[in-house]
């Protein structure tokens, strides 16, 4: 395995080297923030942009692309789910958590460009469920996807 890693680092394409960088980023985020590995690969770091609205900005990297050179639909869904889930989890008391119980996504245009901006809005928060919506655009404000999600709220033991 180490010989293979060394070979890619020495002779690999820039895309392959970028994937190594993203792997290290994912490991670092997991260790520092207990993030899920896919969140680390995407470099997710969010913020509230206004009350009840949470945002992620994600650089479009080779990790996100499908064979057609556009953002993979599964990565777009992961981004929407992560943004809505982060919004809800950050809106709950420390002894509660939320997990996705249902999500619907509408793909509106191919994900292209340098950055995706994902904004989630809280629609309803009543134990044991929360509902949110999410709009994903590119850096030119072109709509890429719209999603809604229902989240189950649990209590930590």
From TrEMBL:
Keyword ATP-binding: no
Pfam families the UniProt entry points to: 4HBT
Alphabetical list of Gene3D superfamilies matching this protein: Hotdog Thioesterase
Highest taxon of the lineage: Bacteria
One GO molecular-function entry: fatty acyl-CoA hydrolase activity
Thioesterase domain mapped to chain residues: 68-144
Keywords assigned by UniProt, alphabetized: Hydrolase
CDD domains registered for this protein in UniProt: PaaI_thioesterase
Record-stated family: Belongs to the thioesterase PaaI family.
Protein name: Thioesterase domain-containing protein
